[in-house]
Amino acid sequence: MTLSRTASTFMPPVMEARRWLDGVTFPADRPLINVSQAAPVDPPPDALRRAMADAALTNDEAHLYGPVLGLPALRAALADETARLYDGPVDADQVAITSGCNQAFAAAIATLCAENDEVILPTPWYFNHKMWLDMSGVRAVALATDSNLLPSITDAEALITPRTRAIALVSPNNPAGVEYPPALIRAFFELAQRHGIALILDETYRDFHAAPGAPHDVFQDPDWPDTLIHLYSFSKAYRLTGHRVGAMITGAARLSEVEKFLDTVAICPGQIGQHAALWGVQNLRQWLAGERAEILTRRAAIAEGLPKIAAKGWRLLGLGAYFAYLEHPFNMPSDVLAQKLVQHQSVLCLPGTMFWPAGDAGGARQMRVAFANLDPQGIDVLFDRLAAFDSNL
């Protein structure tokens, strides 16, 4: 019997991990540390919340259907901000606002792929990208990465076939935190250009990049709209995860196809969230710089605390944005270890097995820690618990 689209893929990993908490009681002196999901838990800043309330109370159109591709003012603001950051031309008609960045990826695949087409994903991969490809009847082709978790242009080119429609990169990377060097991103763009395929570049965590300035120069190429499909999220920048506001930047001709997809799945992005994102772009640049500085402080705390667990055999594989990607020292697969950490150390994190092809041994020794919601003291407690874990339990 043919599987349904949803049955062709795995259960949502974050939801699966949350079920490991069912029936578990955490001691008062060892409350749960949840580093499983990369999402801010604090609400938006008060000024932004007031702007959202004002939109809800005084702007009647904010409660109606809006344009399928998003509010014109927000599209223009993101175009201007992107052009400023990357020092390359971006127009409002090259921007679409979506109901979260995951929807932007889904829309991109809908415009690119037919049944049994292929998209190349570096491993470890972002699991929701793999899930959408499964549900679209598209084959995810795993691209191995090196010891620094960086993909190779040569290896990628060897995987391109007549069915390849895109290469999808995430930088800063989810799950590994790795920031791809500008020259590597440019090389992947040129590879995609040569082969007439798309480069999907997901920069959800761009605002927390460790290096100042533009993460790459692809927008400076005059032909970028023909190859690049750039994805972005306002959710992490302005703490708007529950309002689902993402974006795609690409050629205007592709956006006419994207409009078909978005009209059938959402009609339009949520209006209040869009007004919030617009206010954030216009008013919160300095505040966002402070958010970035805080994330970099927490990143430094990970690096500084690492010797505590390195002495127990743990190894840091990748670090950046919201993520630390670790290799564990135990003689058990990471999905088993993750559940034991819940039970014995009150720590919920995601195993590497959730970011690799089924049956691939690559993720068996790996763990993802989403540390953005831990301050340096919380990171120290997390490392104490990891160091104290006894594999014989």
Summarize the structure in words:
This protein has 393 residues and is of the alpha/beta class. It is 41% helix and 15% strand. It folds into 2 domains: 6-43 and 287-388, Aspartate Aminotransferase, domain 1; 46-284, 3-Layer(aba) Sandwich (Aspartate Aminotransferase, domain 2), CATH 3.40.640. The protein has helices at 13-19, 46-58, 72-86, 101-112, 127-135, 153-159, 182-195, 224-227, 235-238, 252-265, 271-283, 285-310, 334-345, 376-388; strands at 33-34, 95-98, 118-122, 139-143, 164-170, 198-202, 228-233, 246-249, 315-320, 323-327, 347-348, 350-351, 366-370. A 7-stranded mixed beta sheet has the order 2-8-7-6-5-3-4, with helices on both faces. The chain has a 4-stranded antiparallel beta sheet with strand order 9-10-13-12. Helix 12 (285-310) runs parallel beside helix 14 (376-388). The model has no long low-confidence stretch (mean pLDDT 96).
